[in-house]
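Reopening this ticket.

The earlier resolution said the output was attached, but the attachment link was broken on my side. Pasting everything inline this time so it's all in one place.
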Amino acid sequence: MKVTLAPARLSGVLILLLLGACQRDPSVDYQGYLEADYAYIGAPVAGRLVEMPVQRGARVEVGAPLFALDGELERQQLAEAQGRLQQAQAQRADLNLGRRPDEIQVIAERVREARSAVALAERELKRAAEMQKRGLGSDELRDRAAATLAQAQARLASTLAEQRSAELAGRPDALAAADAATAAAQAVVGQASWRVAQTHVDAIAAGRVEDTLYQVGEWVPAGAPVLKLLPAQGPYVRFFIPLTELSQWTPGMLIAVDCEGCPAAQSARVEFIAAAPEYTPPIIFSESRNEDLVYRVEARFDAPTLLAPGLPVKVRRP
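Inline output:
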């Protein structure tokens, strides 16, 4: 007996078949690979490479010495800066002391000399005034004695002012300038000390030395990387999902990562989903999907892994 389907029932069956074909089986693997964020370790100063206690493939912990540069120039600059700081500090201290004791002693002798001159001029003026009263001296003689006394008094006042000035510290503006010079010298010493410290580079994070880019004895320019370091967390997973499945993926989603020869799958969490699609991903391991419109997804392992960057992996949603 021949069975004939109604057109409406036939359309419903076709729609169900098409929807079933569009839905991806969640058990199917996604092809991806391992990528790494390498840290390129260098020094902000230039110099000849004199020490490199680590080798390629070695694991390093925080604080482990990585390499050292010849810092002779930096040490000489530090010594020069320290000398200038001592000079600025000595000049600042000298302003607080006034003049030297020998100079103050010389001024004190001049003060005594000026006092003697004033006393002598006073006696001469007194003698001239008495002689004038007796009619034995003239007005001119008395006026000359008075002028001599005035000169001696003025000389004494000037010498006393010089003595007080010699015993005082520097002027406020001079003291402020000396303080500024001392602070500037201290800053230069700090900069020179920092440059000396930068000639010895230690690890600030644990990881594995992937490559050494210079050999002992070679000249290393400032900022040039000397070591290529893989962080202890290891590589991360990069794979691509089709446009039709984009809504099924969210950051924080747990995935399973497996590879050929791996003893067991490792868990990872989606960290990044690209906002823009790609027509030609960098690497696609399935030729049947080369023309798909795909989105790049990156995931980090929940625990450090020993897998090597560049390894092809399979990604599956639990």
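Reporter confirms the inline version is readable. The longest helix spans residues 101-134. The radius of gyration is 46 Å.
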